[in-house]
Amino acid sequence: MPRYELEVVERQEPKPDHVELLLDAPSLAAALTPGQFAHVWTPGRLRRPISFSRATPDGRVGLLFRVVGSGTRWLADRRVGDRLDVLAPLGHGFPTPETGPVLLVGGGVGIPPLFVAAQRWAATHPLSVILGARTADAVVMVADFQALGLEPSISTDDGSLGELGRVTSPLTRWLARNDGGQVLACGPTPMLAAVAELVGDGRPCWLAYEQRMGCGVGACLACVVPGVGTDGQPEWLRVCHDGPVFSSRRLWWARRPEEA
Amino acid sequence: MDLATRVGAVRLANPVLAASGTFGFGPEYDGLVDVAQLGGVAVKGIAPVPWRGNVPPRVWETPSGLLNSIGLQNPGVERFLAEDLPYLRDRGATVVVNIIGRTRAEYAAVARRLDGELGVHALELNISCPNVKEGGIQFGHDPAEAAAVTRAVKGATTLPVWVKLSPNTHDLPGMAQAVAAAGADALSAINTLVGMAIDVEHRRPALGGVTGGLSGPAIRPIAVRAVWEVSQAVDIPVVGMGGIETATDVLEFLLAGASAVMVGTATFSQPGAMIRIIQEMPTVLARYGFDSVRAAIGAAHPGRLTT
């Protein structure tokens, strides 16, 4: 994977504590698979893994993140004209869906990679979108989906935007309405587990995972999640290198990680 | 400028090796680091059979440092030889295989299996990992036990054996002398220090393994002290490591008595760090009056002051 020094050409604050940096990167914008991420240098010992939030026809890529600590604080303070040291594109993204309906389910900062999926496949697949977060202040990119002609179903834990509750309610309705189809999801781990359980084994279900990360390229074995090996036995999967997108069948849902 | 150095019988084109556990087996950094340009690569610790490692989260950033609790996850020696070693061997890298075991016999078994394998240049006996209950550091606290496992490994291989020491001990020179007397060909110092952090937001230990090993510039002064002490306590070469990020840091370890160094944590932030350091070495050595790496080794020790 190449290392880039990319110029910040636009900076947005779509929601409180959320920043999107647009970077000038034509080759990345063309090569990106939805779900892939950038490992971005910040002061300190570790880079920060951030999923791409968009790839535009004029050669820009977006990084949309929530400010949670020192690294994202530093990133949030970048301005137009600053340069970012970026390893990208990293990891395996969502595979091109089979024909038929596709549902995108995004929770909080898990929403941005699904917008890249929407950009990529809106013209070729019937897409539905479900977005969720704790509050309205964390539901990002709604207008972006709308600009693609998609109307997201929104749910928030406090009912401050859309339906009161979790993404599982609209997901249950979508599953009842559609016999086949496939589901692509990104969000907090409990949300992904709930999505995988509801979707079941009957249709393809692809999940983009988060885990605290070290090297970002598969060397240090820090960002592991419990998976199912080819022999059916538990094995650790590296989010950075084997993922971040996994088939739900490869993930070990039934047990807690310490038993895997 | 002559960057060549040697660690006992092992000749290195330059003194900068990748530290075990931070560089995988090489292909992970394909396109970012040409392994043939490095002094060498110390691969992830290898056991006789695969080890699963610890529960995540496994890393946590600290001021000037990094805590890790990987727990020596590894594919086992057979898969290492079949799937991982060829990449490094085909590119002509100098390979140091870090070896681990739960018992003396397991350490010896890995050493025996690696003996005579084309592309393996030395073994690094890991008796200093703080992140596992069995194996690793239980051998690194007691000089008699450390000497016994060193003897067992030396008896099982013709490869040079470097013994990687833990700073989590009260008598580092005594430990160094014990393993040197047991036949160690070199020492590497230091492994990580035991540390811990609390994830305040979630009100629990930041690492799945609760405690972890601290690396990075935060431990560099401790590592320099360790190299200084053990290089005076024994006659065998010392490979120094701990928070190295620049060519000047390398020179500091050489002056303290190291014959070569390893770079680890810096690679996570800057994958090209080792290559940059190697490129900067000639300028830095010249700036401080050295015409070779070898001339700088131990040059800060008493009686060696020349300016």
Mind sketching the topology for me?
The complex is a heterodimer of chains A (260) and B (307).
Chain A: E1 3-15, E2 18-24, H1 26-31, E3 37-40, E4 48-55, E5 60-66, H2 70-76, E6 83-90, E7 102-107, H3 111-121, E8 127-133, H4 142-147, E9 153-156, E10 163-164, H5 168-177, E11 182-186, H6 189-199, E12 205-208, E13 224-228, E14 234-238, E15 245-247
Parallel strand pairs in A: 7-8, 7-11, 8-9, 9-10, 11-12
Antiparallel strand pairs in A: 1-2, 1-6, 2-5, 3-4, 3-6, 4-5, 12-15, 13-14
Chain B: E1 5-7, E2 10-12, E3 16-18, E4 40-46, E5 59-62, E6 65-68, H1 77-90, E7 95-99, H2 104-114, E8 122-126, H3 143-154, E9 161-165, H4 172-181, E10 186-189, E11 193-196, E12 198-199, E13 204-205, E14 211-215, H5 220-233, E15 238-241, H6 247-256, E16 260-263, H7 265-269, H8 273-287, H9 293-296
Parallel strand pairs in B: 3-4, 3-16, 4-7, 7-8, 8-9, 9-10, 10-15, 15-16
Antiparallel strand pairs in B: 1-2, 5-6, 6-14, 11-14, 12-13
Description:
The complex is a heterodimer of chains A (260) and B (307). Chain A is α/β, with parallel strands linked by helices. Chain A has 3 domains: 3-90, Beta Barrel (Elongation Factor Tu (Ef-tu), domain 3); 94-208, Nucleotide-binding domain of ferredoxin-NADP reductase (FNR) module (Rossmann fold, 3-Layer(aba) Sandwich), CATH 3.40.50; 211-260, Ribbon (Dihydroorotate dehydrogenase B (pyrk subunit), domain 3). In chain A, 20% of the residues lie in helices and 34% in strands. In chain A, the strands form 3 sheets. In chain A, strands 10-9-8-7-11-12-15 form a 7-stranded mixed beta sheet, sandwiched between helices. A 6-stranded antiparallel β-barrel of chain A has the order 1-2-5-4-3-6. A two-stranded antiparallel sheet of chain A has the order 13-14. In chain A, helix 5 (168-177) runs parallel beside helix 6. The longest helix of chain A has 11 residues, at 111-121. Chain A is globular. Chain B is of the alpha/beta class and 307 residues long. Chain B has one domain (5-296): TIM Barrel. In chain B, 31% of the residues lie in helices and 21% in strands. Chain B has 9 helices and 16 strands. In chain B, the strands form 4 sheets. An 8-stranded parallel beta barrel of chain B has the order 3-4-7-8-9-10-15-16, surrounded by 7 helices. A 4-stranded antiparallel beta sheet of chain B has the order 5-6-14-11, with no helix packed on it. Chain B has a two-stranded antiparallel ribbon with strand order 1-2. Chain B starts with a strand and ends in an 11-residue tail after the last helix. The model of chain B has no long low-confidence stretch (mean pLDDT 95). Chains A and B meet through loops of A and strand 5, strand 6 and helix 7 of B.
